[in-house]
UniProtKB/TrEMBL annotation:
<dbReference type="InterPro" id="IPR014756">
    <property type="entry name" value="Ig_E-set"/>
</dbReference>
<keyword id="KW-0732">Signal</keyword>
<dbReference type="InterPro" id="IPR013783">
    <property type="entry name" value="Ig-like_fold"/>
</dbReference>
<dbReference type="InterPro" id="IPR029058">
    <property type="entry name" value="AB_hydrolase_fold"/>
</dbReference>
<dbReference type="Pfam" id="PF00756">
    <property type="entry name" value="Esterase"/>
</dbReference>
<feature type="signal peptide">
    <location>
        <begin position="1"/>
        <end position="21"/>
    </location>
</feature>
<dbReference type="InterPro" id="IPR000801">
    <property type="entry name" value="Esterase-like"/>
</dbReference>
<protein>
    <submittedName>
        <fullName>Esterase</fullName>
    </submittedName>
</protein>
<dbReference type="InterPro" id="IPR050583">
    <property type="entry name" value="Mycobacterial_A85_antigen"/>
</dbReference>
Length: 371
């Protein structure tokens, strides 16, 4: 994979949540409600039916507060101070549907919003806000049988420590001797192994698909991709070898030993979003005997030249948002199909390099796995 292309893709992380269409104040609907990701009992931040976000922060000793939205927090919304010590303000335009990171800059210092829950992104815990999506039903919490997400600590001789992973097991797991396929699912740059459960709702997506009979039950393993040691702007210096050893020589054997897995290539997949896609691309090419299914979510492409002379994948899945570079994904899939590969593309409408793109991508990917 061309690292220059990955760097361009990742650059959109910095702007994905803060590109607004200008709208006059009189056109903004006054139907604001607390964000679904607020701290218990907190009224702000709020969102309205058009996708605007409104903030209210109590800081009587402060002189200036700016809300910076999107991974990296570029630009932002300047809040206005009132006589009561509250700073208030509304975004200049509607935000994309779905999840966004943000933080507050108060008199030059960076802080999280005390009204919002925190999520790990930008190599730190950031505030989170959710703009309800019209299609949010597929990742909603419903009255269906639920799987389990558990933390495991596995030994890593290569890093001389125990490392953490989260494992989703589907409803009914462990009640009998049934064994399951496994998807190794990687997070993006600046995030960690909590991202796919917390920001991505991967477990709820799977529960709902399984309940609807649209998806074969399988295990998902999510671990830290050791990406945060690479600072922004230095992605070309990223080396995959250390994480590849952790994943292929330590984590996979541990999971196969401690979980009810079908431990072969045809029942093992790897996928990743953004930089996790870059990791997936490199590791599946280096260790193609281990994985039968490859998926890059806003994480670059495969081409037939790099896949030739290797065990043929059962599926190559490429996706991105419509505000990214969808022509690259669609052209790559067309080329793969032409050369005899089972390849599928998916473009998430009206989203950029953000979690609604990746939630939708997982919804499309999961039913295609392990057939």
């Amino acid at each position: 994979m061309n690292l220059k292309c990955i760097a361009i893709t990742l650059a959109s992380l910095w702007i994905g949540g803060c590109c607004y269409a200008q709208t006059s104040a009189r056109d903004i609907k006054d139907d604001f409600k607390p964000s679904p990701l607020n701290q218990p009992g907190k009224e702000y931040p709020q969102v309205n039916s058009q996708g605007y976000a409104r903030f209210k922060v109590f800081a009587p000793q402060a002189d200036s507060i700016r809300v910076s939205l999107g991974l990296g927090g570029q630009g932002g919304t300047l809040l206005t101070k009132g006589a009561d010590g509250y700073f208030t303000g509304t975004t200049s335009g509607p935000m994309d549907e779905g999840f966004h990171y943000y933080h507050l800059t108060i008199d030059g210092g960076v802080f999280n919003d005390p009204g919002a829950l925190n999520f790990y992104g930008s190599t730190r815990w950031e505030s989170g806000i959710e703009i309800p999506a019209k299609d949010q039903d597929f990742y909603a919490l419903k009255e269906v049988p639920h799987g389990n997400v558990q933390q495991i600590l596995f030994p890593s001789k290569s890093t001389n420590t125990s490392r953490r992973a989260f494992v989703y097991t589907p409803p009914g797991y462990g009640k009998n001797a049934t064994k399951y396929p496994v998807l190794y699912l990687q997070h993006g740059w600046g995030e960690d192994e909590t991202a796919w459960s917390n920001q991505g709702h991967a477990n709820l997506i799977m529960d709902n698909l399984i309940a609807e009979g649209k998806c074969k039950p399988f295990i998902i393993v999510m671990t830290y991709g050791m990406t945060n040691e690479i600072k922004w702007g230095n992605i070309r210096s990223f080396k995959i070898e250390e994480f590849q050893t952790v994943l292929t020589d330590e984590l996979i054997p541990y999971v196969d030993q401690h979980f009810q897995t079908i431990a072969n290539r045809d029942n093992r997949a790897m996928a990743g979003l953004s930089m996790g896609g870059m990791e997936t691309h490199t590791i599946t090419l280096n260790k193609s005997a281990l994985f039968g299914y490859y998926a890059l979510l806003s994480g670059g492409i495969f081409n037939s030249e790099e896949l030739k002379d290797k065990p043929k994948p059962k599926l190559v899945f490429l996706s991105c948002g419509s505000k990214e570079r969808p022509e690259g994904v669609m052209n790559a899939v067309a080329e793969l199909k032409k050369t005899g590969y089972n390849a599928v593309s998916f473009v998430s409408e009206n989203t950029a390099h953000e979690f609604l793109t990746w939630r939708r991508s997982l919804r499309e990917l999961a039913p295609l796995l392990f057939h």
